[in-house]
Design goal:
CATH architecture: 4-Layer Sandwich
CATH class: Alpha Beta
Strand order of the largest sheet: 2-3-4-5-6-7
Largest sheet: 6 strands, mixed
Strand content: 15-25%
CATH topology: Metallo-beta-lactamase, Chain A
Helix content: 25-40%
Number of helices: 7
CATH superfamily: Ribonuclease Z/Hydroxyacylglutathione hydrolase-like
Number of strands: 13
Distance between the termini: 44 Å
Number of domains: 1
């Protein structure tokens, strides 16, 4: 079950960058307390002048000015527009990776970003990338997940990610879902998800199934990522082959670190 655009405090503005990896495009989120004069922008998206102007126009139409810009991670489809939006609005850019900050503040674990009574709580969620964070919006029982959880399909472990970290992240989010009674996930791509617990359970099960398939491929004599992809990712869109390679390599690293690979693959 999905909800169309957001929550009372989170409005989705879809960036015009659709692709096999970004789905319908990057979800930029405008976060504000109803009736407030300030807003936070989560993931301004690509450096696309029309999209960045629309973000500002949406805020202005609600009588708000942008006072914070937050990044769930540093991939360009989420972060490339941050510098231009910061220059246009005067708002600082907060990121877990200091290289992408503009201003003195980052997004350390447990930090609370407050804009006129609307709070976002920083949850470290590495795995897709090393610098990934999710942002808990308690007032709406919502979690902004960036690319950690997608509105459609499953997440790639990118070249700068780690599967062991990602599995720990899924457990952390399952615990948060229960403790905070989360009702909605606001992803970086795809539709809003209104079944957080079921979604996270599916993601965790999917990862274990993929590891089982990789083990079976290895047992069947496959050794290279290309061979494993041909067996495990049957019918994959050629445009996604590079990203499947990342995921296979991440799974092989995970198995290698646990001593599960055959001796000739050490």
């Amino acid at each position: 079950m999905t909800a169309p655009e957001g929550t009372p405090r989170a409005r989705r503005i879809l960036a015009p960058n659709p692709s096999p990896m970004t789905l319908t495009g990057t979800n930029t989120w405008l976060i504000a307390e109803p009736g407030a004069t300030e807003a936070m922008v989560v993931d301004p998206g690509p450096s696309h002048p029309g999209h960045l102007q629309r973000v500002q126009d949406e805020a202005a139409a609600a009588g708000q000015r942008v006072t914070w810009i937050l990044l769930t991670h540093s991939h360009p489809d989420h972060a490339a527009g941050a510098a231009a939006l910061a220059a246009a609005t005067g708002a600082p850019v907060l990121a877990a990776d200091p290289r992408y900050q503009r201003g003195d503040e980052g997004l350390p674990p447990g930090a609370v970003i407050d804009s006129v009574g609307c709070e976002l709580h920083v949850i470290p969620t590495p795995g897709h990338t090393a610098d990934s964070v999710s942002l808990h919006l308690p007032a709406d029982q919502a979690l902004l997940t960036g690319d950690t959880i997608l509105g459609q399909g499953t997440t790639v472990i990118a070249e700068d990610g780690d599967l062991a970290d990602y599995l720990e992240t899924l457990t952390r989010l399952q615990d948060l879902t229960a403790a905070a009674d989360l009702r909605v996930l606001l992803p970086g791509h795809g539709p809003v998800l209104t079944t957080p617990a079921e979604t996270l359970d599916y993601y965790a099960a999917h990862r274990q199934e993929r590891l089982s398939e990789i083990r079976a491929a290895l047992a069947g004599g496959d050794r290279t990522p290309t061979e494993i992809i041909a067996r495990v990712y049957t019918g994959i869109d050629p445009a996604l082959h590079r990203f499947a390679t990342w995921s296979v390599q991440a799974q092989l690293r995970y198995l290698r670190d646990r001593g599960e690979l055959p001796p000739d693959m050490k």
